[in-house]
Amino acid sequence: MFRVLDVDAAVPTAPLDPATVLAGAPAAGSRALAAVSGVEVGVWEMSPGTATDVEVDEVFVVLSGSGTVTFEDGERVDLAPGTVVRLRSGEHTTWVVHETLRKIYVA
After folding, report:
1. Could you tell me if 67 and 81 are in contact, meaning their C-beta atoms sit under 8 angstroms apart?
2. Of 41, 31, 35, 26, nearest in space to 8 by CA
3. pLDDT, tens digit (0-9, with 9 covering 90-100), for 41-78
4. Which helix (H) or strand (E) holds 87?
5. What domains lie within the chain, and their CATH numbers?
6. In the beta sheet, which residues pair with residue 72?
7. Theoretical Cys-Cys bridge with 55: which of 49, 60, 76, 91, CB 3.0 to 4.6 Å?
8. How many Cβ atoms sit within 10 Å of the Cβ of residue 50?
């Protein structure tokens, strides 16, 4: 049986830890949609602002919004609907969100 995952479902967000915020007052949150063979599929959202993060193993596809993610080695990826990105556990990143960013992730 096929089931449709509701990628438009509301995502509960909360202000980010002030120690990670570099600009603005971004809030973020996620909502798990399914678990497949021990892998989580969900939706994540972040409002405008700039924040740092330490990543988990993940692949994601941007559903809406815009921004950039910069990796500690200097690589920068522009984020827009349809962009696919691979994150690796332990990577340090900086997220700059211009328009509320919404992604579906597999982690």
Report:
1. no
2. 31
3. 999 999 999 999 999 999 999 999 999 999 999 999 99
4. strand 84-87
5. 21-106 (2.60.120.10)
6. none
7. 91
8. 19
71-87 pLDDT tens trace: 999 999 999 999 999 99
First and final C-alpha spacing in the chain: 23
Report residue 2's pLDDT band, with 50, 70 and 90 as the boundaries. Answer: low
Residue 73 phi, psi (nearest 5): -85, 0
SS3 label, residue 18? helix
- How many Cα neighbours within 13 Å face the side chain of 17? 5
- Quick one: CA torsion of 48, 91, 106, 76, rounded to 10 degrees? 50
Q: What span, in angstroms and rounded, lies between the C-alpha atoms of 10 and 71?
A: 28
Tokens 């990543």 belong to 55
- The whole-model pTM stands at 0.92
